[in-house]
UniProtKB/TrEMBL annotation:
Subcellular location: Nucleus
Family according to the record: Belongs to the ESRP family.
Organism this protein belongs to: Oncorhynchus kisutch (Coho salmon)
Protein name from the UniProt record: Epithelial splicing regulatory protein 2
GO molecular function, one term: RNA binding
GO biological process assignments: cranial skeletal system development; mRNA processing; RNA splicing
Main localization of the protein described in the UniProt heading: nucleus
Any Gene Ontology CC annotation: nucleus
Function: mRNA splicing factor that regulates the formation of epithelial cell-specific isoforms. Specifically regulates the expression of FGFR2-IIIb, an epithelial cell-specific isoform of fgfr2. Acts by directly binding specific sequences in mRNAs. Binds the GU-rich sequence motifs in the ISE/ISS-3, a cis-element regulatory region present in the mRNA of fgfr2.
InterPro entries, per the entry: ESRP (IPR050666), Nucleotide-bd_a/b_plait_sf (IPR012677), RBD_domain_sf (IPR035979), RNaseH-like_sf (IPR012337), RNaseH_sf (IPR036397), RRM_dom (IPR000504)
Protein keywords: mRNA processing, mRNA splicing, Nucleus, Repeat, RNA-binding
Boundaries of every RRM domain copy: 227-299, 328-403, 451-526
Length: 720
């Protein structure tokens, strides 16, 4: 508008659902619009206009029928919203021309018709609203400014305001919904414009055209009364989609923060910061409104939560985000060797990056290594859309994913990678029971970083390949210090741990062998501690987000693969319900030795007998460690004293069996793939031919998803 002082257009609307103070809270469509022009200079009024609006869904609530007096038949003959808005513009423009006026401002009784009904509905129907609907005055706020003793703004009504200035109500014959409200607002406006008030309308409210991007500092104060949490968002939704969902409400600059999960992907939640509490309260009224086919939950949140997600301290990020009104695209899966020029070439001339290489932000670990993620700035939506068309196209030998992003997501990703070490601090022993291994020469726990982790091994890699990969550093490997990590199917996971003779040697290996090629793949090498290695081998998972504990925090029935068990005299019922233990090499003995070396079982203490049966049906999905081997122990078969041989796997018609070849009086056998109706007799028949006596075995069976676990204590070494 060129000016807000020429003319007022008093405006009113009603929906097919809730009206009054709940207008727009139920997503029902507009069915009625009424308006009238007021000349502020001449104190004249124009013709009262009333239009019915045909909704897409011809359904009216009983409350709406009673309040508006409209029927479905009447609405069926009406024009849709876009046509009625065109009629509104034409009618107002014609009257303004007749009055010799050039501009006007909408005047409404509360902001709901503009903010909660008209803008959201136009956004859903992809309608472009006239400019006049982005600025308005609220007659309640103007009246409160003129008559501050009349009461609080939120408590004012047309009836109370007319009563305060002693204006009589309209006769019952004129109390038709829409017409009544507009006539009352016109009377009230003319009254406060005249003596003795001589009021001038000045409290102009604006509706933002679009979301403003920007950075947020962790030191910036954020009012908790302005923040909400939106939950249930589609994973591919962007900040612009969230802005459209809250269309009509003013979101603060950089006020949309999409939340990420532990893997750095969007988790369907967002924190949104509004310019004031009034807009936040209106946003809460959109609880369970729809974005596409999904309903979105809206709850209160705190400023602290918003800063935790959107706040940042990096100068590099602040400089990157200082360019305002830019479209941000996130690239994921970039080759680690990709340069800014490679990225610019990949995006091409049809999607030029703002300020060329200065519009690129590569995400890196604290040690400077690239993560494969980058953020790109584009000056307009067209360039960003051209870039998104290259989603999953190839750069080098990798396909690249491209997504819309936000300033808050840039902060989150940078904060996460820059603050989280590759191997995070381990939880205390009270949280996860760690076995105390009594054979420190083989796998003693400790915080000394004398181990290395190999990640990205070819699945066909054998011990020989690892030793060849290590090269001259092979001589620094401890005896039995190579630990391949297998998945729950018993196949290589692509990871391995190697114990070195000292932390210095481990550091040297990590420096020399990192990203060295093995066959057709490069292998990442990281320094870590024995304690961290043990934690992973017990079932914990290690990724860029840190170390996750194994699924066996509580005593439960799980496959204690490669664990040692005591002799029958030592075995107790409590020993049957233990988490899996790490492989501990033992000295091989002849199968018929009359005096076998007593074995040691390493169990965490039990706090209460009831805990023995907790989580017995939990699915076990952790990694299984392979038996440790030495550089001289090729293909897993024991050669020097103290090594452990790996059991060969024999396929059978009903399943397969895998067992560590341990020369103890008792050993654990894990059987997978058994029929669901298999019983104890079937298991004993399966082992027919191996030496054991009926009185010398105990069997405990758990059937879960085709897996059976049995404890067998044969008289001799059980070789399967």
């Amino acid at each position: 508008m060129a000016s807000h002082s020429d003319t007022l257009v008093v405006f009113f609307g009603a929906t097919a659902g809730a009206n009054g103070g709940k207008l727009g809270s139920d997503e029902r469509e507009i069915i009625l619009l009424v308006w009238q022009i007021v000349d502020l200079h001449e104190k004249k009024v124009g013709k009262l206009q009333r239009r019915l609006v045909k909704p897409d869904s011809l359904e009216l609530t009983d409350q709406s029928k009673e309040e508006t007096g409209l029927s479905v038949e009447e609405l069926y003959k009406a024009e849709p919203l876009d046509k009625v808005l065109q009629q509104f513009q034409q009618s107002v423009s014609a009257e303004l021309k007749a009055l010799g006026r050039s501009s006007y401002t909408l005047c409404v009784d509360g902001p709901l018709i503009i903010r909660q009904a008209l803008h959201p509905e136009a956004s859903k129907k992809n309608l472009v609203l006239p400019e006049c609907f982005y600025s308005f005055v609220d007659v309640r706020k103007e009246f409160h400014k003129c008559c501050p003793n009349a009461g609080q703004v939120q408590d004012l009504t047309l009836h109370s305001m007319l009563e305060y200035v002693c204006i009589p109500e309209l006769p019952l014959s004129e109390q038709v919904m829409g017409l009544k409200e507009v006539r009352c607002m016109v009377q009230l406006s003319l009254h406060i414009l005249a003596e003795p008030y001589n009021h001038k309308f000045s409290c102009f409210e604006a509706v933002k055209y679009k979301l403003e991007s920007g950075a947020c500092s962790k030191t910036e104060p954020v009012d908790s009364e302005t923040v909400i949490r939106a939950r249930g968002l589609p994973w591919q939704s962007s900040d612009q989609d969230i802005s459209r969902f809250f269309k009509g409400l003013n979101i603060a600059k950089g006020g949309v923060a999409l939340c990420l999960n532990a893997q750095g992907r969007r988790n369907g939640e967002a924190l949104v910061r509004f310019i004031n509490q009034e807009h936040r309260d209106l946003a809460l009224e959109r609880h369970k409104h729809h974005m596409g086919s999904r309903y979105i939950e809206v709850y209160k949140a705190t400023g602290e939560e918003f800063l935790k997600i959107a706040g940042g301290t990096s100068n590099e990020v602040a400089q990157f985000l200082s360019k305002e009104n830019q479209v941000i695209i996130r690239m994921r899966g970039l080759p680690f060797t990709a340069s800014p020029q490679d990225v610019l070439t990949f995006l091409g001339a049809d999607s030029p990056v703002t300020d060329a290489s200065d519009g690129l932000l590569f995400v890196k670990y604290p040690d400077g290594r690239p993560t494969g993620d980058a953020f790109v700035l584009f000056s307009c939506e067209e360039y960003a859309l051209n870039a998104l068309k290259k989603h999953k196209q190839i750069l080098g030998k990798r396909y690249i994913e491209l997504f819309r992003s936000t300033a808050a997501e840039v902060q989150q990703v940078l904060n996460r990678y820059m603050s989280t070490p590759l191997i995070s601090t381990l939880p205390s022993s009270s949280m996860v029971p760690m076995p105390v291994l009594a054979t420190p020469p083989y796998l003693a726990t400790g915080s000394t970083r004398d181990c290395v982790r190999l990640r990205g091994l070819p699945y066909t890699a054998a011990i020989e390949d690892i030793l060849e990969f290590m090269g001259e550093h092979t001589i620094d490997i401890k005896p039995h210090g190579v630990h391949m990590v297998l998945n729950q199917q018993g196949r290589p996971s692509g990871d391995a741990f190697i114990q070195m003779r000292s932390a210095d040697r481990a550091f040297m290996v990590a420096q020399k062998c990192h990203k060295k090629m093995m066959k057709d793949r490069y292998v990442e090498v990281f320094q870590c501690s024995t304690e961290e290695m043990s934690f992973v081998l017990m079932g914990g998972t290690l990724n860029r987000s840190g170390l996750s504990p194994p699924p066996c925090k509580l005593p439960c029935l799980a496959p204690p693969a490669y664990a040692a068990f005591p002799s029958p005299a030592m075995l107790s019922e409590a020993a049957l319900y233990q988490p899996p233990l790490l492989a501990t090499p033992r000295t091989p003995q002849p199968p018929h030795s009359p005096h076998p070396t007593p074995t040691l079982a390493y169990y965490p203490p039990q706090h209460h007998p009831a805990q023995l049966y907790m989580n017995m049906n939990m699915n076990y999905t952790a990694y299984y460690p392979s038996p440790p081997v030495s550089p001289s122990t090729m293909s897993y078969f024991a050669s020097p004293p103290g090594s452990v041989a790996l059991a060969a796997q024999q396929p059978h018609a009903q399943g397969h069996v895998a067992s560590p070849m341990m020369p103890q009086h008792g050993a654990l056998v894990r059987m997978q793939g058994l029929p669901y109706n298999a019983g104890v007799k079937d298991i004993l028949s399966f082992f027919q031919g191996y030496q054991y006596s009926p009185e010398d075995y105990s069997s405990m069976v758990q059937m879960s998803q085709g897996q059976t676990r049995s404890l067998i204590q044969p008289k001799e070494w059980l070789c399967l």
